[in-house]
Design goal:
This protein has helices at 21-32, 52-57, 61-70, and strands at 7-12, 37-42. α1 (21-32) links the parallel β1 and β2. The protein has a two-stranded parallel ribbon with strand order 1-2. By secondary structure, it is an alpha+beta fold. The chain has three helices and two strands. The model has no long low-confidence stretch (mean pLDDT 84).
Length: 75
């Protein structure tokens, strides 16, 4: 019998505030998940505003990093 792949979760807080309650809650989620689950947090603070002209030249490194996390390719 093969083992089931881990369930992967990505947490994203909509707040950029340093003392955000939501961001604080996300920081402890990984410690309380049951076995078989993985958790990562992505931050919006490094993302630039959307600009289609920039996208045509290629995504900035910060955007590529966020895209990889949002596709659940965890480190």
């Amino acid at each position: 019998m093969s083992s089931r792949p881990a369930i992967k979760l990505l947490g994203i807080s909509g707040s950029l505030r340093a003392q955000s309650f939501n961001s604080g809650a996300l920081s402890v989620v990984g410690a309380v998940l049951p076995e078989g689950m993985e958790f990562a947090v992505a931050t919006l603070s490094d993302l630039p505003f959307y600009n289609a002209d920039v996208e045509q030249r290629g995504f900035p490194a910060e955007v590529e990093s966020f895209r990889k996390k949002s596709q659940l390719q965890m480190p």
